[in-house]
Amino acid sequence: MNAKIQKKFIELYDSHFTPVFRFCYFRTKDRELSKDLTQQAFLKTWVSLQNNQDIENIRAFVYRVAHNLVIDWYKKKKEASLEILTDAGFDPIDESQHPESDASYGELIKILDELPKKERSLIVLRHVDKMKPREIAEVLGRDVNSVTVAIHRATKKLKEILKRKNTI
Q1: Please, which residues have CB within 8 angstroms of residue 30's CB and are 6 or more apart in sequence?
Q2: Taking Cα atoms as reference points, which of 4, 125, 57 lies closest to residue 117?
Q3: Which residue of 78, 98, 112, 138 lies most exposed, with the fewest beta carbons within 10 A?
């Protein structure tokens, strides 16, 4: 086992576990699932590093893995949809388990829910996770220019929502 790779991975894990978790959480709205997806993303990153895979931007790589895991989860969820339960008033997120400091996350999620899924992802990556457009492009497998334009449009829509709610 290469000590340099191990040190690089530990630094990545320590500095990015919470942001990758948040990335997953804003998409799934399920804390336990988000923890599992985050752990899977880091495990897959570790395996790739151990297999001497050439990873140019390890931060973007772990986000890309997490992004793919979330997409896979949505595909599985769609197959076994629980929409009937949510329409009937069942809330799979137990607010009583959330610390008081997470109240702002609840509000943010409600506001972000008004955006389409793709735009919501862009807003979270850019403004919550503080990723640069180039990194976001790597995560999403898109062109940097199109990501920049999409971020601008999503931010504009978010500002309109916030103005409508009188929060800015």
Answers
A1: 92, 93
A2: 125
A3: 78
